[in-house]
Design a protein that fits this description.
Layout: H1 8-36, H2 41-48, H3 52-61, H4 63-66
Helix pairs in contact: 2-3
């Protein structure tokens, strides 16, 4: 079945929303990595309002954070 119509505005809006979400996630990860340089994961999670498991998962992925 071939789609009979394509709404460019809806498509572009979806792309923007995906970009915003990805940007927010990337920014959050950068913030957490920076805060982990001088703070415990528990402190970062509490101050940022994030789940401790999320902060720990970022710490595990972060090469710089692992050495701290």
């Amino acid at each position: 079945m071939l789609l009979s119509g394509f709404n460019q505005e809806i498509y572009e809006k979806g792309l923007r929303e995906e970009g915003w979400e990805a940007g927010i996630e990337e920014g959050t990860e950068k913030l957490v990595k920076n805060l982990l340089r001088n703070n415990t994961p528990e402190f970062v999670a509490e101050q940022c309002g994030l789940e401790l498991e999320y902060v720990n998962s970022i710490k595990e992925k972060c090469e710089v954070c692992k050495s701290l």
